[in-house]
Amino acid sequence: MIRLKNISKKYNNTYAVKNLNFDICNGCITMIIGPSGCGKTTTLRMINRLVEPSNGEIFINNKNILDYNPVALRRNIGYVIQEIGLFPHYNVEENITVVPKLLKWGKDKIKKRVDELLDLVSLNPEYKQKYPHQLSGGEKQRVGLARALASDPEILLMDEPFGAIDPINRTKLHESFMEIQKKIKKTIVFVTHDINEAIKLGDNLVILKKGMLVQNGKLKTVLNNPKNNFVKSLLGEDRNLKGLVLKKSYDFANKKYLKIIKNKNEIDKTFLKKDKRNLIILKDKKRIKGYFKYQNKNNEEKIKYYSNIVKAGKYSNLREILSKMMEFGEDVAFICSKDIFLGVIRLADILKEMGSNL
Amino acid sequence: MIESILFVFENMPLLLKGALVAVELTVLSILLGMVVGLLVAILRLYGPKYVKKLMKIYEWVLRGLPILVILFIIYFGFPSLGVNIPAFISAVLGLGLRSSAYQAQIYRGAIQSIGVEQVEAGLSIGMNRAKTMLYVIVPQAIRLSLPGFTNEFTIVLKDSPLAYALGIAELLKQGRNIIVTSFRPFTIYLTCAIIYFLLFHFFYYLFRKIAEVYEVPGYIMSKKS
Ligand SMILES: Nc1ncnc2c1ncn2[C@@H]1O[C@H](COP(=O)(O)OP(=O)(O)OP(=O)(O)O)[C@@H](O)[C@H]1O
Ligand SMILES: [Mg+2]
């Protein structure tokens, strides 16, 4: 655990950071967010002692960081920044192995570690011989992450690591980042000023304003109970919508009001008529082909067949599903994990979830 | 024509001796300039405030004086202060110190363009300051300095004939000696010119090769453009 206790940092008599108190839990991602100049970077850099606080103490696993040797401390804390700081005169492999070499690891161990790390950040082994200037921003970022992880530090500090990357690649990096974290379970402190990024990646949120702590806690708690107008505006008017990001489809997929048939002539009209929520799904061995629904328009009763269905994966979040529904003009989504049908999520279910945030 | 060629060949040993002196003069001056220049660059970047000022003045003064004036002060001026310095050493001092002012600029620019984030990157992955300098800053600074250094080397080489004025038997002086007895200035000066030209391009090529060996794909190129 990282604990900041009454931490302040003054530059020429003005506070960059004032009287911060919060804890960062082990194995989770804590997002530090706030407007430009609010002290996010300063806070982060006090943790690995690139900046010394003017006041207060920081503890890592209950030991004051001043009691650690700074070099040893930093070897246990990976640091990834936007401008990455890869060494331009070293190739990818040399960049990653700087620390293992300093630690005098054996050749075989180093070689194995490089392969492991490249695999982890999904870079092809061919990249080993490339130089930073030959890499794209996203690739550099992956190498930066691999280098930070080289000696397997407990803690990872990341300062807007994906800030300079275009939205499409950023989404990709987000996904691989979450997958990586699932494997490595590091204590990650992540600075961003993008609230969507914070909500997507974070377990906990630390909100700063003008160097002071405004609110911190579990992402869900903050989303549901913004402390004041500043937090509300930071989260945005659409914070309920944003909250949907946290909700994974597998928790909501259900098979209530459903009947599955293999052949069109198995339709059970009375089942459809009984409840307007009821659906009959046409499914051959693996594939869902479409569904039947009862309609009553202008007193004209009809069983309508829909074949243009919305499908989503087990790990999709409700927000993604909602936007897919909007796109297709549908009010039900089919959740499948590979070929297994888990159930459906209805627009009404999602709206109910949004309501529960209020 | 054939007679001229024979004449040049006859006098070649003397001219080559002079050329060797010119190269010695250049290499020693450059080395002196490198040691002093590096020191000045580092002090100007990291020294205490007044040292920074002092180094700035040092650069100003040396860059603001004609080289011949510097050489005359050292060789003809210092003896009246009771300091007698042999001609060759005076020439190395003059050319070397003047070069140090220019080399200081080259190294300072190189170190500055590397930027603090590289130092921080080094520290943040757990290198100490010395190792960060050694493995991160110096290797980059050398690469970034090479183009400027090559240029400076050839400038000193081309300024080396000024040592003539102190009576040093470098290439031009040897040529002049031959002319005094043979009265063939055109042939001899043309030969001197060819030798200087060849020396220049030899060193230019040598440093370019060195730069190629240590080139990092995309790195120096992108810094240059
Ligand atoms: N070395 C320094 N000297 C003087 N002032 C500084 C220094 N570093 C930061 N500051 C000031 O401290 C404040 C906080 O800076 P910090 O870099 O922590 O902000 P930030 O939240 O990371 O901003 P951004 O989102 O723009 O990166 C700013 O007002 C900044 O000008
Ligand atoms: Mg910042």
Spell out the key features of this protein.
heterodimer; A: 358 residues; alpha/beta; six-stranded mixed sheet; four-stranded antiparallel sheet; globular; B: 225 residues; mainly alpha; MetI-like fold; 0% strand; binds magnesium ion; transmembrane helix (chain B)
Q: Can you tell me about this structure?
A:
The complex is a heterodimer of chains A (358) and B (225). In chain A, 34% of the residues lie in helices and 29% in strands. By secondary structure, chain A is an alpha/beta fold. Chain B is mainly alpha-helical and 225 residues long. Chain B is built from 9 helices and no strands. The A-B interface holds A 48, 50, 71-72, 74-75, 77-79, 81, 83-89, 98-99, 102, 130-134, 147-148, 150-151 and B 117-118, 120-121, 123-128, 131, 135-136, 139-140, 143, 216-219, 222. The structure holds adenosine-5'-triphosphate and magnesium ion.
- Element-by-element helix/strand order of chain A: EEEHEEHEHHHEHEHEEHHHEHEEEEHEEH
Distance between the termini of chain B: 48 Å
Structural class of chain A: alpha/beta
Note poorly predicted spans of chain B: 221-225
Can you tell me the number of structural domains of chain B? 1
As a whole number of angstroms, the C-alpha radius of gyration of chain A is 25 Å
Any idea of the CATH topology of chain B? MetI-like fold
The biggest chain-chain interface is:
A-B, 29 and 21 residues
Contiguous uncertain segments of 5+ residues of chain A: none
Under CATH at level 1, the class of chain B stands as Mainly Alpha
Proportion of beta-strand residues of chain A:
25-35%
Shape of chain A: globular
Largest sheet descriptor of chain A:
6 strands, mixed
Oligomer: heterodimer
Bound molecules: adenosine-5'-triphosphate, magnesium ion
What would you give as the CATH superfamily of chain B?
Answer: MetI-like
Largest sheet of chain B: none
Helical content band of chain A: 25-40%
Discrete helix count of chain A: 13
